[in-house]
Amino acid sequence: MAIERVHLPVIIASNVITRYGGKPTCQHFPIDFQIPCNILVTDRIPPFTDEVRNTIAERYCPPALIPSIKTSKPDEDCLIRPYLGRQRHGQKQKQSKFQAFSLRNYPLHIDQIEELQLDGTLYARVMAETLARLYWIGHIDANDVEFVLAPPRDHQTAPGSADGLTIQSSVLGNHRVWLLDFDCCEPMSQDEARVEQAVSAFYKNDPFYPRPGKSDDRDQRLWMAFKDHFLSSSAAVLDQESPEARLPGYWIALVEQRS
């Protein structure tokens, strides 16, 4: 199943029990995890550069933590989670003497996406097309999948190179929308009950997707962009003469009813 525009880690090997590449592997893991088992090996999603990490830290990190974040080894693994369904501004902040900040899986809310002049509508369209293909071609409910922004692989750095998925940004540089974490996905037969299952998964997931029913004009436009592209992407992959052709509209109706 090819998913256009979104990027997937490549599966390098599967069903590896005790050896990979002809060499023993168990001793490379902590002692509690050295029991032989089947594993799935994928390539690593590249982290953002120091320049991007420093920009995000300087804009959004509590000032007292900026020096330590910039030199933090764990924070070198910087991926960004685009939260199109939540704003940072207006959220109630708990008062605490403890401050925390991490660039690992950093949540970038829709108001921050606009501050950085990133194309939230493009991200929404990528997510909408991805869900349509997971539902109607992959026949899975997309439960708990994750979208992250990250650079392309080293050999795919030029805008529009390879499969044409690279997005340009003055802040994030060349980057792509990556999709990962399918371990909680469930099979989805093409009927109304399973569509309801997918709607539940949509709302249980982290707020990657735009949400309907918001009062803010920006949020409404983002939802409409998502909705329109989900319906058009679904129509492109479903036989319009088949009974399944009505399911994308049913999914949208249920999502809007639950808002």
Short description:
This protein has 259 residues and is of the alpha/beta class.
Kindly describe this structure.
- A hairpin with a 2-residue loop joins strand 3 (19-20) and strand 4.
- The strands form four sheets. Strands 1-9-8 form a three-stranded mixed beta sheet. Strands 2-5 form a two-stranded antiparallel sheet. A two-stranded antiparallel ribbon has the order 3-4.
- The chain has 259 residues and is an alpha/beta fold.
- It is 33% helix and 13% strand.
- The protein is built from seven helices and nine strands; from the N terminus they run E-E-E-E-E-H-H-E-E-H-H-E-E-H-H-H.
- Residues 17-22, 92-96 and 159-163 have low confidence and may be disordered.
What features would you highlight for this structure?
259 residues; 3-stranded mixed beta sheet; 33% helix; two-stranded antiparallel sheet; alpha/beta; 13% strand
> Could you tell me the number of beta strands?
9
Q: What separation lies between the terminal Cα atoms?
A: 31 Å
- Poorly predicted runs: 17-22, 92-96, 159-163
Overall pLDDT metric: 86
How many helices does DSSP assign? Answer: 7
- H/E series, N to C? EEEEEHHEEHHEEHHH
Oligomer: single chain
Q: What class, by secondary structure content?
A: alpha/beta
- Main sheet attributes: strand count, strand direction, barrel closure: 3 strands, mixed
Strand content: 5-15%
**Strand line-up in the sheet with most strands:** 1-9-8
Helix content: 25-40%
Looking at the structure, what is the overall shape? globular
The radius of gyration computed from the alpha-carbon positions, rounded to a whole number of angstroms, is 20 Å
